[in-house]
Structure prediction request, 121 residues.
Amino acid sequence: MNARDLQLLRHSLVLVWFATALSSAWEAHGRSAALLHQAGVDESTLAALMLWGGVALDAGVGALLMLAPLRLAATVALAATLAMTVLTSVALPGQWLDPLGSLTKNLPILAVLIVLRRNAS
Prediction:
């Protein structure tokens, strides 16, 4: 895979992570809160910590993918994606059936991260 292709993949993931942070923050009192409620997180302080911690994690991974050495950034993003996929699978297994593919989209993202990590110089 050439360097231009790797940069295209990298920058597309930067956009995904920043867009996820922005949409989670935008929907803090809407869909984001509803998902936490569905997962059984009703205590407002814990819900706020989880929601804004997730926003910070998404933005941080986006920044790492944009600025850090590729192998490090891809490794952190891979770990974060795996962790969030497992946690969501346990707390909200029905998300695998979401018609918009909220969890199934993680599968190609994981594949892209593995390719980036393998091809990082």
Summary: The radius of gyration is 15 Å.
